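Onboarding guide, step 5: your first structure request.
Type a short instruction followed by the sequence, for example:

Predict the 3D structure of this protein.
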Amino acid sequence: MQAADADEQIRDLIRGLTAMKAARRARKTDAAGFAEQLRTARSAPDRVQIEFNGERVWVRRGATVLAAALKNRIRLMHVCGARTICSTCRVRVEGGSSSLSTPQTKEHLALRLHLDFRSRHRLACQARIEGPVEVNSVFPLCGNLPGD
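The system replies with structure tokens like these:
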């Protein structure tokens, strides 16, 4: 009877190893697919060149001005965490205002609350980039960032 138990244990081990090999192959396939997705995203034509405080950078179409600035390590004040409350991420649009999304009611109210009625001003946390645009921050930061 012990020989039969030993044979059964060996069969269980072989089944387990076979399942592990199949899982490993599936992970490799998933990794290859993920790498292909990254290559496709990197070469995608949905990138736009903008000028921010005189610095030209490439950003993803549809991103907010604030997200584009932070992603490219451009310093821009944003106290409320992009919740349209503080208006400290205000930017002045120097060119390409038609390449930004239209202001929503919440943004209009935030700018009026802070007594900023100029049409060239937008909140960087709300303005989405649709094409080439040139903006300058109204409240630049002073000092160095960690790692600078």
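Each response can be followed by summary notes, for example: The mean pLDDT is 80.
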